[in-house]
Amino acid sequence: MARFQVLTLNSISAKGLSRLPGELYAHGNTVATPDAVLLRSHDMHAMEIPASVLAIGRAGAGTNNIPVTKLSTRGVPVFNAPGANANAVKELVLAGLLLAARNIAPALHFVEGLDAADAELERLVEEGKKRFAGIELANHTLGVIGLGRIGSLVADAAIKLGMQVVGFDPEITVDAAWSLPSQVRRAHGIEELVRSADFVTVHVPQVPGTVGLMDANRIAAMKNGAVLLNFSREAIVDAPAVLEALRTKKLKSYVCDFPATSLRGNHAVVALPHLGASTREAEENCALMVVDQVREYLEHGNIRNAVNFPEVVMARESPYRVGIANANVPNMLGQISTAMAAAGLNIRTMLNKSRGEMAYTLVDVDSPVPDAVVRGIASIAGVLSVRNLPAHG
Q1: Residue 97: which of 221, 199, 231 has the closest Cα?
Q2: What is the Cα–Cα distance from 40 to 283, expressed in whole angstroms?
Q3: pLDDT tens digits for 335-364?
Q4: What does pTM read for this prediction?
Q5: How many CA atoms lie within 13 A of 368 on its CB side?
Q6: Of 359, 353, 363, nearest in space to 322 by CA
Q7: Measured between alpha carbons, how far is residue 109 from residues 104, 120, 133, 233, 287 in Å?
Q8: What CATH number does domain 86-271 carry, 2.60.40.1260, 3.40.50.2300, 3.40.50.720, 3.40.190.10?
Q9: Mind listing the pLDDT tens digit for each residue in 303-313?
Q10: For the domain bounded by 1-85+279-308, which CATH number is listed?
């Protein structure tokens, strides 16, 4: 029997699943007691997640469909694949810019309404096309809110199209800053950015602080006739404020990846059906990335790209390893060390990191770890989960 059982809640790229060696893993959509769950868009909030689950892997960036807080209390990391679908989203944003700049959507609707057999077709086309005259992107300004992997790629592509780019991200990482094109002008706030941009695109995660980020006040501060694009998350833009701005012609158009009911029927809205990461390449990249991360955790306890755990990656110095998830409270390492020393275990190396209220520890020891020691550590107040991680093969 395979050592690890993996439940797939969505169709996961075969290329990604091929990274699960058959001698160690079994996977499918009917696994009853999974060690890990792989998914894409499946909503897990109403799902009874088996107690056997040690890790969740989301083959994509967002984790709004996963009860992350609930899983954190169980000591279960939730992995995602940030940046793996960045190129796919970037290309769709560029398509959105062109759709808005050249009035392509209403022009298509116009053509669909023509009778191909009409003898006056050519005249009707020539007369009608005047309504759809657009602008060129070159020399116009794009405002990019959020300068992570996707935002940086969008900024770079826009610059290559001849656009001026202004960006804002209050939490930009060092890596993101290094990858950002030097031509991007930094704004000191969203209000400054929207006042100077002909097009504004948002690329931030949905967290409590970003819900309604583009509200009525910020939309009112935009240039008259500007275009707003949202390929991030639906709730980041206030839909009623957008509709009012479209009604008053404050906004020329709204291009998004979320066909909300309230937006339907408005000809100034281009709403796509969640196409951002819907490319073969993006699905493969996301699956490969998250499968590798889940494997590293299941087999070695290493954590990379978990949304609720610190990043902890430690090269093995022994075949005998323990991984411990715990509340970030004082004297936890001391209690863990004491429990191991009392059992005669010599610690070869230890790595502990914390992230907010969560902490995680990897310990390599010189001899096998008895089950009684694992149970003893699990009984320490504040410990959420303990895993014995002997090297396989």
Answers
A1: 199
A2: 9
A3: 999 999 999 999 999 999 999 999 999 999
A4: 0.81
A5: 4
A6: 363
A7: 9, 18, 15, 27, 37
A8: 3.40.50.720
A9: 999 999 999 99
A10: 3.40.50.720
